[in-house]
Fold this protein.
Amino acid sequence: MQKPKCNGLNNEVIYVKDRNFLDTVMEFEQQLESLQGQFHALKEFVAFMMEEHQSLQQENFLLRQRLDEIHAAEEEVLKQSELNAKKLSRLDIGEGYDNLARLYQEGFHVCHVHFGSSRKGEDCLFCLAFLNKQNG
């Protein structure tokens, strides 16, 4: 192989090629540094999001537990109120039945057919059936 002769023009071409190559390498280095910075920022963001995710999962778990406790308490209160309502309705039915039985004994109809009219001392099968139904 022969060495190229060194004249001014060839040196300039080689220098320009070297210069372009060096510029390309420097640009590539800047791009790598920029990517490295972006990658570091991305890693920090992912770490923050993972911590936030864990925190939200824990909060969600605690809120679900609290909600279950509230639902259980509401169900208990509902059961109690239903029992109380049944007791009250039994008392109400008992009071109403007593009033109707008293009216019947006083000689008035309590059936839907002749309600409030005088029985004239005769028993009414409708009234008796109604009173027996209410009693049972």
About this structure: Residues 9-38 form one domain.
